[in-house]
Design a protein that fits this description.
CATH class: Mainly Beta
Strand content: 35-45%
CATH architecture: Sandwich
Largest sheet: 17 strands, mixed
Order of helices and strands: EHEEEEEEEEEEEEEEEEEE
Structural class: mainly beta
Radius of gyration: 18 Å
CATH topology: Jelly Rolls
Length: about 300
């Protein structure tokens, strides 16, 4: 494992490419069955479940407002025994950590685990995505997978999904994810092939593995992210997920296999257009392979 590079802490802003695209559907190469009744609701009808799923077909990439620096954020995790990121930046749609390409790093494998959070829904429709992936931070190519919470008509719907460049369209696989499910994820690059895997060990019907091809993907970053997805009108309200804890995070660059803190890492705080924090990541744990993001506000 390489020692962490020394460089100045940056309170910056960065335009993060969103992970969620325009089209939903189960890809032919993914192996999983899709449940029709969403978890976390009071036995919704099949019609309600279909309406909820149709409601997220309009998610698109782009149309973000300007990002803002978070004043004083560099001091947020100076104590408490955690591992501070080398760079601290803000985003209007991402919260979490990204390993970047400083020093010429490219990435070939990423993993991460979490327990699916529980949503508190209101009458306002909202979304929250949790994922790991290669690319998307400083490139237009994205190779990502994870889970998605949708609050629709005051009910919570939970899904597993993946997304792959160049279509940049989320592919929903499972819709029977429940709060508390044990989720493990990975993306592995081998040449121009990418294997994307999500395992829901609590409800295996949501699990899948698919292999996709991309010869032009940059492999220039690796991310562990809680996201407020975007629609045609911009960033959607962020579902109240209370907190999301990523653990067991590993990443490989070249011949070196490590954890988040093994490579140049950036901590991303999600803010709104006024600079108020929407989702706040904590410091990396002592092993550099996990952290918690806390929800603050929906918009």
């Amino acid at each position: 494992m390489h020692h962490r590079l020394r460089r100045l802490v940056l309170i910056g802003s960065i335009a993060c490419v969103p992970a969620l695209g325009t089209l939903l559907g189960v890809a032919g190469t993914a192996t999983a069955s899709t449940a029709t009744t969403p978890a976390g609701t009071s036995s919704p009808s099949a019609q309600a479940a279909t309406a909820a799923r149709n409601a997220i077909k309009q998610l698109v990439i782009g149309e973000h407002g300007n990002n803002h620096a978070v004043s004083g954020h560099a001091l947020a995790h100076a104590t408490g025994g955690g591992v501070s990121a080398l760079n601290q930046v803000s985003s209007t749609n991402w919260a979490g950590y990204a390993d970047d390409s400083t020093g010429g790093h490219t990435y070939s494998k990423i993993t991460g685990n979490w327990t699916e959070p529980s949503a508190s829904c209101t009458s306002t429709e909202s979304l929250a995505a949790f994922w790991i992936g290669i690319d998307g931070y400083t490139s237009s190519s994205v190779e990502q997978d994870g889970t998605l919470i949708e609050c629709y008509r005051s009910a919570a719907y939970y899904y597993t999904w993946w997304e792959m460049y160049p279509s940049n369209a989320i592919q929903v696989v499972g819709s029977s994810v429940s709060p508390g499910d044990a989720i493990s994820t990975s993306v592995t690059k081998s040449g121009s092939s990418y294997k994307l895997t999500v395992t829901d060990s609590t409800h295996p019907a949501n699990s899948f593995s698919t292999t996709q091809s991309c010869s032009s993907c940059a492999a220039s970053s690796a991310e562990w992210i809680a996201e407020a997805p975007s629609g045609s009108g911009g960033v959607e309200p962020l579902t109240n997920f209370h907190s999301w804890t990523a653990s067991g995070a590993t990443v490989t660059s070249g011949s070196t296999a490590g954890v988040i803190s093994s490579f140049p890492d950036d901590e991303l705080t999600m803010i709104n257009n006024s600079g108020a924090v929407k989702a706040q990541p904590g410091a990396l744990n002592g092993s550099g392979n996990g952290f918690t993001v806390t929800w603050e506000r929906s918009s």
